[in-house]
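This part of the workshop introduces the protein records we will be handling. A record pairs a protein's sequence with a compact description of its fold. Backbone structure tokens are a discrete shorthand for how the chain folds in space. The question running through the whole workshop is how a given chain folds. The record below serves as our worked example for the rest of this section.
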Amino acid sequence: MDEIPPPRWTFVRGKWQIATYAVFGLAVFVVFMAASFPYSDALSSLLAPYQMKLVYESQHMSAPIGARLEDVRILSTVGPQPQLILKSPGVTLAPALGMLLFGHPAFSVYAELYGGTISTTIYKRAGVTDLSFVLKAISLSESAPLRQYGAKLNGSLSGVGSAELNSPLLSDNKGRLALDGRDVVVEIADGAPPIRLGVVSGSLSLEGGVVTMHDVEAHGGDLEVKAEGTIHLDPDIAESEVEMQLSLAPTPAGRAHFGIFLNLLPHPPDEGPYQVSGPLMSPSIT
């Protein structure tokens, strides 16, 4: 008597069980690797070639996989004294699949930053670090890096950008940022009334040590502004050279607030754009 083969569904069920075990095993492997991976050490080694140092108060696990660092600071190690670049009360790190399986430094980073947040993906390849990031509602008044250069700003900044970091030198790196500023206010000199710029939009690109402004505009404040030009970066940011064409159109509120100051400009705003040139922190206007 011929042997009766088992029903087909038995083989199908067996294959599904094997697939389920494989997926479960892979999940366990990923979780184990993520839980045991030295995130802070990997991130520190990624920052070191760019003369930056990671400092934090404590670290603990973050579900489902990853780690959270508390009281985080990134410092520049250029010069005799470390200089603050970024400060965050909390940073969450999660591994990318390439880091888990192949050991390549690759992170997803979410940080609380100056009243807002930044989401970043960092990937290391052949001596180059690639970044893509999203800024949301960063408070300009809380930014320590801006304050240390004497900038007096209020409002919030959001944006989307990317960067390619090749070395600690700005001239070796590339980047681009699309800006979206809200309720922006700037104080250009001590004793002068603050200028309400309102909504600021446009984009900035960095290549060859030169920052180029693309369609930078401000609307809804004291002045309608359009700016185009370049900033040639210097290792001392305050000594960077700006070459910019600036168009101003005062609103009724702006004329009421700045009538006297508008008379101090080289020519009335409606006679054409101004040429701004010289050191970034003290340029000349013609």
In short: The mean pLDDT is 79.
